[in-house]
């Protein structure tokens, strides 16, 4: 099996970078389609469109309807086809970005991703997560190439809700834990190849940055200012975690996140990263990590206000049947839990979901 490493062609990060985006986009094409949601359009989308128009770009927009389903992807693809676009720009959060990737892939256009928060590691990858119209996880879509341009305006991101940055930190914290599990199995990354030394180094560096600078970055975000700590964490959440998960591989934590979509309820008020945080703790339990190591992650998550109990996951009243449904979807043969170095059953996941909860309540950090 070959080692495979992937990354975006160009990554740009800096204060007021959106103002400079026309210079980078000119290398890709002049006819652009901005895919975004209503809120992001009002905050930065309309200004971006005006700046591009002033630079002789032909600009169309498409308002993303909220769920990266196959139906929504097809609807947006028709708009892009009618506009004969050369570049698709995904502007906003994770699901809008995933939709933009899918549209660009179907029409074979250039792809630019402009995140407005550092909430997930989706921007740099050649992967979209597809959900049903009801919000249930369905599958991953894999593409032949990564985005041509990923551009992050740290001034814009500093104004985003703090909860989104914390969510991105939680998502990024899973990167090295899952890549390490894939390493132990000598398994496959999300590119269908072996891990490179570069991917492993990046995944490990991601965790180090988050432990070292996470709290200071959150403080900067709360103050709505850009600092070195916030700049570092934005890069860790986006570039380091993005390359780390795709080229390093995923394990149980993200599969358990996907498993949560098997049940209905208030759990879906949580962000992607908040669900991944609990999934990460479950993976650590499944691996039977030493309790002092597990305590380090629990303390970090709790200080950030991330969920570490079933009550905080809105699962305090979940039935055994519901926990098994989570486990059954998480252990699907098509999900990344198959890259863990040992077999895991739905019953074991249900047990670990409960064990993490009880451990946190009774023993953690005492």
Report on the architecture of this protein.
The structure is a single chain. The protein has two domains: 148 residues, Rossmann fold; 201 residues, Dehydroquinate synthase-like, alpha domain (Up-down Bundle), CATH 1.20.1090. The radius of gyration is 20 Å and the shape is globular. The protein contains 13 helices and eight strands. The protein is 52% helix and 12% strand. The chain has 366 residues and is of the alpha/beta class. The strands form two sheets. A six-stranded parallel beta sheet has the order 1-8-5-4-2-3, sandwiched between helices. This is Glycerol dehydrogenase. It catalyses: glycerol + NAD(+) = dihydroxyacetone + NADH + H(+). Its EC number is 1.1.1.6.
The helical percent reads 40-55%
Which regions contain 5 or more consecutive residues with pLDDT less than 50?
A: none
Can you tell me the number of structural domains? 2
Sheet/helix structural class? alpha/beta
Q: What is the averaged pLDDT score?
A: 95
Order of helices and strands: EHEHEHEHEEEEHHHHHHHHH
Q: Which architecture of the largest domain does the CATH hierarchy give at level 2?
A: Up-down Bundle
EC number: 1.1.1.6
Keywords: Metal-binding, NAD, Oxidoreductase
Catalytic activity: glycerol + NAD(+) = dihydroxyacetone + NADH + H(+)
Domain Alcohol dehydrogenase iron-type/glycerol dehydrogenase GldA: 8-154
Top keywords for this entry?
ADH_Fe/GldA; six-stranded parallel β-sheet; 13 helices; two-stranded antiparallel sheet; 8 strands; Glycerol_DH; alpha/beta; Dehydroquinate synthase-like, alpha domain; NAD; 2 domains; Rossmann fold; 366 residues; single chain; metal-binding
């Amino acid at each position: 099996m070959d080692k495979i490493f992937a990354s975006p062609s160009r990554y740009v990060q800096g204060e007021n970078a959106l103002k400079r985006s026309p210079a980078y986009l000119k290398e890709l094409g002049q006819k652009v389609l901005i895919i975004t949601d209503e809120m992001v359009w009002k905050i930065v989308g309309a200004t971006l469109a005006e700046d591009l128009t002033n630079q002789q770009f032909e600009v169309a927009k498409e308002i993303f309807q909220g769920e990266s389903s196959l139906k929504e992807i097809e609807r947006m693809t028709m708009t892009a086809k009618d506009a004969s676009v050369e570049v698709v720009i995904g502007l906003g959060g994770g699901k809008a970005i995933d939709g933009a990737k899918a549209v660009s892939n179907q029409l074979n256009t250039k792809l630019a991703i402009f995140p407005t928060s550092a909430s997930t590691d989706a921007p740099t990858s050649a992967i979209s997560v597809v959900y049903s119209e009801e919000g249930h996880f369905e599958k991953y879509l894999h593409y032949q190439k990564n985005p041509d341009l990923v551009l992050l305006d740290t001034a814009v991101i500093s104004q985003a809700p703090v909860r989104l940055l914390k969510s991105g930190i939680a998502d990024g914290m899973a990167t090295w834990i899952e890549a390490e599990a894939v390493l132990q199995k000598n398994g496959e990354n999300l590119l269908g190849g072996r891990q490179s030394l570069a991917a492993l180094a990046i995944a490990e560096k991601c965790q180090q940055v988050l432990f070292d600078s996470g709290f200071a970055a959150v403080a900067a975000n709360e103050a709505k200012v850009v600092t070195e700590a916030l700049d570092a964490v934005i890069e860790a959440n986006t570039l380091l975690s993005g390359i780390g998960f795709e080229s390093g591989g995923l394990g149980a934590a993200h599969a358990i996140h996907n498993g949560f979509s098997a049940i209905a309820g208030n759990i879906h008020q949580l962000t992607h990263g908040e669900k991944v945080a609990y999934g990460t703790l479950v993976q650590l339990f499944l691996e039977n990590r030493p309790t002092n190591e597990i305590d380090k992650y629990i303390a970090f998550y709790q200080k950030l206000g991330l969920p570490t109990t079933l009550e905080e996951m809105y699962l305090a009243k979940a039935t055994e049947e519901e926990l098994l449904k989570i486990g059954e979807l998480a252990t699907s043969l098509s999900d990344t839990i198959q890259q863990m170095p040992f077999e895991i059953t739905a019953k074991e996941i249900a047990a670990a979901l409960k064990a993490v909860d009880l451990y946190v309540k009774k023993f953690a950090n005492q």
